[in-house]
Amino acid sequence: MAACSKRRRLAGDAEARSNIGVSVRGEENENGTDSTSRVTLQDPSELTKHAVRRARQAVRCLPFQRSFYRNVEEEALSSSELVAGSDWPSQTRRRLNARETEDLLIWLIQLGVLRREVDGQGLTERVRLTPLGREVLTPWPETLPSAGLGSRLAHWCRRHRPRW
Hints:
This protein has helices at about 1-20, 45-60, 65-75, 80-85, 90, 100-110, 130-135, 150-160, and strands at about 20-30, 35-40, 115-120, 120-130. By secondary structure, the chain is an alpha+beta fold. It is globular and about 40 Å long.
């Protein structure tokens, strides 16, 4: 029992120090009690690689063009400003309505590409590019390549049916 709690304490210390994902899994014996526990540590670089890969796929599948990401890197932008702007053809591949635009921005926030801007009174409707977003866009300084059909299908499933 002492070895088990020591492993759990060490795993907790490791997670607190380095933001590594920890999974503790116990095995039951014939009495239904936990006899041993295994601690699995995930390397944070693997988590980051997965997040970058997933975000790159999303950026290529969504209708925003590279100039949109350049604009939100320089200044905050809201969905209503994007929809109302006369320069929408330079920022999106197709015309978007306000609700559609907000849904896409929320998806990019969930992926870590964008974040909500904060002012003195709290969160605003405006978004900005995150450091992860800058890293995701590094391979494409001028234009974003279009995603293929397989990539679009995988992205759609990941976005609309995440537990599939």
